[in-house]
Input
Amino acid sequence: MILYTTASNDRDLHGILDLQRANLPGQLSKEELEREGFVTVVHSLEDLRKLNRMECHVIAKEQDKVIAYLLAMTVQSKDDIPILVPMFEEFEKIWFDGRRITRYHFIVVGQVCVAKDFRGKGVLGNAYAKYKEEFQHRYDFAITEIAVANQRSLNAHRRIGFREIHTYNSPDNTEWRVVLWDWQNPG
Output
């Protein structure tokens, strides 16, 4: 049985880190990168603790093992993870529904990962349902960026209800799609 909950202790955070390490590009073959997707940012335990103190990460566990996670990141933590600063700077340039993104109260999905053996089984959708349950009453929407090269993740986020609102290149020339899940006006 899979439990969808929030990270509540260091064991949960270590489980996130274990899953993250297994899905970094350096751990995957070229075929796996294209077929399975990947994560980009490497977090430390302290990074996850700091973020989790502001808003708890959503996790899926089976027999006390983290099999999926959706990181929660607020605007207040924008300077805490240097590789994500360009994303937050880009948000200042994006308009949504007649206003700059930064004029809204939003939560950033800092990173998403589902263990390989659990992909294609509805785990991501259920984890996102928990994410929405946790945050929809405090935030207008969830927003994140996905590398254009990560088509599996782009497709999965479209199925959840995210829509692409912007494309840009980061300083390292990675092409990113900014996607948004509007909880106030779905559809």
In short: The chain has a mean pLDDT of 91.
